[in-house]
Amino acid sequence: MAGFDKRVKSYEEAMAGIESGMTVIAGGFGLCGIPENLIAEIKRLGVKDLTVYSNNCGVDGFGLGLLLEDKQIREIHASYVGENALFEQQMLEGEIEVVLTPQGTLAEKMRAGGAGIPAFYTATGYGTPIGEGKEVREFGGRHYILEESVVGDFAIVKGWKADRYGNVVYRDTAQNFNPMAATAGRITVVEVEEIVEPGELNPDQIHTPGIYVDRIIQGSFEKRIEKRTVHQG
Amino acid sequence: MALTREQMAMRVARELEDGFYVNLGIGIPTLVANYIPDDIDVMLQSENGLLGMGRFPTEEEVDPDMINAGKQTVTARPGAAIFSSAESFAMIRGGHVDLTVLGAFEVDQHGNIASWMIPGKLIKGMGGAMDLVAGAENIICTMTHASKHGESKLLEQCSLPLTGAGCINRVLTDLAYLEIENGAFVLKERAPGVSVEEIVEKTAGKLIVPEHVPEMTFAE
């Protein structure tokens, strides 16, 4: 009766099956709520030619920035990049392909992908370089472009607490892209700060229901801060 | 005298209304939060998933799980809500945000805005700006009227790649407050001590100058 027990014992087991050339969807915004240990495991495994969907690409030496060191990412779909020198260098040298994607479109690509909706119309990007070459339709006198959604071979997610059933809650703004990423992986791996006993999480406060989740692992997190700003006085 | 960044923020703050949900972009728009009048209540939306952004935390309150869209550590105010990026952009794209304030490189007389990409320079991305300009009815664009070299940023046609088409109707520069109507900038207010002639000279796009152009006043 372990059919619903999603817990795995090691990061090796958590990322088992990932191969070069796969598409990986990652949660996180900046360095907030990133699956830092799952990323580190991908680095350790050395898989290459990855296509990554993530709002950002980490910083030098941390987060997805780690995967740049051995040129593991071939293509990244992100809304904002370039917080790291290595990224800039690889972009200028054509070693990484960057598909800049409006932040709301990126979130919706994951949400729709996870919900079985292959594409959607949005006004975002119409009349801009983002809309070039995309199908345009008019609804109610406004123009919309067709954006395709995404399903990843793997989704890597950072939660706060989970139970063995894979029910996950997020903490504060570390939620961000994580719930959508969780729905959009053929294999969804969630790392959390604490695995709690079934029943401890209130069913009506679950952010990600366990049906979306394949593997759960408890880890410890560095949680780096990108811009520490404090209140004076 | 051209407005300082703080004065621009103070002028934008006059457009806030009690009960408004407001998204403030990075730069001058962020400063608007410092000039919200005491007698009104507004909720600041941060597109990473926070409605009701509070002040910066004290050293003791700093929490890596609590940031704003500029990746700065922040707090949540009483009445705040936290949610996913999809929920956040549903608010934005669905037109639920009452006012969006954001910066730009160029705006033109057709309401087009360019704010994210200068070809030949490093391109970092648009973040949420394209969603914000496409989703909001009510946008104020803040920027300097002309570049350091004196080139107008209020154009007949944007020269840089667009962030959004036909979506801007209000512009606050360091020299003037203008609205965009029927393919032209309309000069509504001038910065204290700035002449209409200077604004005319520094506006490349079609500019309509009413008979009387009052000087700006500011939120306290």
From TrEMBL, chain A:
It comes from the Bacteria. Signal peptide: none annotated. GO terms for molecular function: CoA-transferase activity. Pfam families: CoA_trans (PF01144). SUPFAM superfamilies: NagB/RpiA/CoA transferase-like. Keywords: Transferase. InterPro entries: 3-oxoacid_CoA-transf_A, CoA_trans_fam_I, NagB/RpiA_transferase-like. Gene3D superfamilies: Glutaconate Coenzyme A-transferase. The keyword Transferase applies. This is CoA transferase subunit A.
TrEMBL record, chain B:
It comes from the Bacteria. Pfam families: CoA_trans. GO terms for molecular function: CoA-transferase activity. InterPro entries: 3-oxoacid_CoA-transf_B, CoA_trans_fam_I, CoA_transf_AS, NagB/RpiA_transferase-like. The keyword Protein biosynthesis does not apply. Coiled coil: none annotated. Keywords: Transferase. Belongs to the 3-oxoacid CoA-transferase subunit B family. This is CoA transferase subunit B.
